[in-house]
Automatic annotation (TrEMBL):
Ranges in coiled-coil conformation: none
Designated name of the protein: Dihydrolipoyl dehydrogenase
Family the entry assigns: Belongs to the class-I pyridine nucleotide-disulfide oxidoreductase family.
Subcellular location: Cytoplasm
Domain FAD/NAD(P)-binding: 5-334
NCBIfam families linked to this entry: lipoamide_DH
Co-factor binding comment: Binds 1 FAD per subunit.
UniProt-listed Enzyme Commission number(s): 1.8.1.4
Organism: Pseudomonas lalucatii
Gene label: lpdA
Recorded superkingdom: Bacteria
Domain Pyridine nucleotide-disulphide oxidoreductase dimerisation span(s) in chain numbering: 353-462
PROSITE patterns listed in its UniProt record: PYRIDINE_REDOX_1
GO molecular function, one term: dihydrolipoyl dehydrogenase (NADH) activity
Keywords: Cytoplasm, Disulfide bond, FAD, Flavoprotein, NAD, Oxidoreductase, Redox-active center
Amino acid sequence: MTQKFDVVVIGAGPGGYVAAIKAAQLGLKTACIEKYQDNQGKIALGGTCLNVGCIPSKALLDSSWKYHEAKEGFAIHGIEAKGVTIDVPAMVARKNTIIKNLTGGVAGLFKANGVTLLEGHGKLLAGKQVEVTALDGTTQIVEAANVILASGSKPVDIPPAPVDQDVIVDSTGALEFQSVPKKLGVIGAGVIGLELGSVWSRLGAEVTVIEALEKFLPAADEQIAKEAMKTLTKQGLKIRLGARVTGSEVKKKQVTVTFTDADGEQQMTFDKLIVAVGRRPVTTELLAADSGVTLDERGFIYVDDQCATSVPGVYAIGDVVRGAMLAHKASEEGVMVAERIAGHKAQMNYDLIPSVIYTHPEIAWVGKTEQQLKGEGVEVNVGTFPFAASGRAMAANDTGGLVKVIADAKSDRVLGVHVIGPSAAELVQQGAIGMEFGTSAEDLGMMVFSHPTLSEALHEAALAVNGGAIHIANRKKR
Ligand code: FAD
Ligand code: AMP
């Protein structure tokens, strides 16, 4: 007999699994379909984020940072650490244990919340029927009052550098190196390229990042991007801007990459090459020809502001739809859609989705950049505070970077918080909380911040917006 559900979710990444749990919590009979197999051939939940994205990259970033600190950062504290070595397979194995714990945790949450897991490939048919093809090829049809498509994304391939997962790898392959490459090339200076480049650079690889655009981190505030370029270059990352990769040749376990920049055609040879040029939506075999769901011109599933597709009762969320390809955006869309299906009037604030790059120092922001606001003709006041003036940062020997708060010159409402520095992601989240409640720079300035904390840098930057910072000389108002 055909199984019937109130909600069927296709894909158990941070979009899909969160949507499924929320729907079940709201009393809806819910199933979630997932096909991803781990290296033991078992279905693993959690999607890109838990298996080959956010979490594994952060595990390797944290391990490599500890190694780097032990080698370079202990002496200043009077700690002698001689003969520090890195066991790369052990580091990668620790990462895999974390993945196993987290993906197993999601399976546990499904059980606890009464979400039915359907293992296999899901395909939306006409009339909100969903075909599930199990790993052994058998199929079943389930019926749903509502369907949520959450099939995520995968790395973009470029013809000049075809991924073989041996010498030329994508982000997934770059999480699995079993030794440190002597020379590592990275195509793309986006979030993923910079994070993975940092991991292997800290462990001793000579890293060159080749980026087609002339501008570094174009989405970030220019002041922050400039500081990031300076800091990452000082750390040893060679970042070649305005350099477009046009070809590559693999020979004897090395790859020679051809690229063109202002000086003409160039070549560089690497032991490994990471292709990190972006991600594209996964819609292969997801929609039957008569499903009625349409794609936009870039191949994303077309949805409105509430994630409704062109078919009533069918929604799509996360990386497979427009907007930032971020786990927290996917999850919040999942919550919004589940709540709307349950009859609530949920909305999502797309203007306040924080962005984070987990380099060291971290780079994070929420809201608009100074350039965006000026481009829109908004008059702003800007306050900055350098971590070099923070007692807490000094105590931690981590004084690089700054906090920048941008407020509307007329209303004083905070329109952007941008940070490069220690715990930038956490600091920006404080800005996001304030901005969600319409905070002014003065409001932030009047709040009591614990001393000594890195958060005080946010407090001081907010005070600096109106010339009232205490621990730096304020910019004179013209
Ligand atoms: P996904 O996580 O891609 O999940 C989709 C799931 O659907 C997959 O498990 C897939 O197997 C399954 N699926 C697809 N089609 C079908 C089908 N037909 N039937 C059954 N199952 C199907 N984001 C952050 O916010 N912070 C970070 O620090 C961060 N770091 C990242 C680092 C790396 C290296 C990468 C690659 C990504 C990172 N991201 C990060 C991005 C983040 O992983 C994605 O934005 C997020 O996973 C998107 O969630 P999703 O649920 O939309 O899709
Ligand atoms: P993101 O989309 O943030 O992951 O970043 C991917 C980056 O890769 C972008 O900044 C692109 O400009 C860059 N990129 C794409 N194709 C090439 C190429 N052929 N050579 C160099 N950089 C590229």
